[in-house]
Amino acid sequence: MKRKKLFIVTAVLILVGTLGYLFREQIALEAFDVFMSDSVERSLEKTYKPLKGDSNSEPFLRSDPFNIVLLGSDQRKNEHARSDSMILAVVRPKESKVLLISVPRDTYVNIIGKGKKDKITHAFAFGGHEMAKKTMEAFLDEKIKYYASINFNGLKNLVDAMVG
Predict the structure, then answer these.
(1) Residues 41-46: contacts with CB within 8 Å, 24+ apart?
(2) Is 60 exceeded by the pLDDT of residue 157?
(3) In 3-state terms, the chain is what percent helix, strand and coil (to 5)?
(4) What are the residue boundaries of the Cell envelope-related transcriptional attenuator domain, all occurrences included (predicted)?
């Protein structure tokens, strides 16, 4: 009798574990939508700053592929900021795919708008988001339409918004 109960409990646990594993992505997406998406959206909306000449006339999620530069800065009060992390995200909505290309911050490049070679991390320090975006475009030979930037405080707020 004990063996039969142990077998049934084990079989149920294996079945539940297997189903959980097979549907983990759907479960995670549903949990995010139910518990965190509104909080994350509100946090991100507070920090949006458009680039010069940026327009919101076209929908962000469109069918054509587009590029986003993701910048993680060490920005603090009364200090010059550098981008510690620079990632190009190539978004392909039709394929539901995103390709991420990380550029090491010490990569030596031509800094667009400065007229000299330096570490790519310094583009952000010299000219903020705009210069960092233009330098990444020139270095990677890719047109970058959007950018997203976050500093340590923003990252903390984002993690808190995601119930971290």
Answers:
(1) 42/161, 43/157, 43/158, 43/161, 44/158
(2) yes
(3) 45, 25, 30
(4) 82-164
Between CA 28 and CA 24 the distance in angstroms is: 6
Name the residue type at position 105. Answer: R
- Distance between the two ends of the chain, CA-based, in angstroms? 45
Q: What is the mean pLDDT of the chain?
A: 80
What is the Cα–Cα distance from 47 to 55, expressed in whole angstroms? 16
Position 164 confidence tier, pLDDT thresholds 50, 70, 90: low
Short-list 98, 97, 135, CA closest to 118: 135
Taking the model in full, what pTM does it have? 0.58
Structure tokens at 72: 């993680």
> For residue 139, is pLDDT > 80?
yes
DSSP state of 95: G
Q: Is the pLDDT of residue 101 over 80?
A: yes
**CATH number for the domain formed by residue range(s) 56-161:** 3.30.420.590
Instruction: Give the contacts of 61 (CB within 8 A, at least 6 positions apart).
Output: 93
Burial 52-63 (b: 16+ CB within 10 A, else e): eeeeeeeeeeee
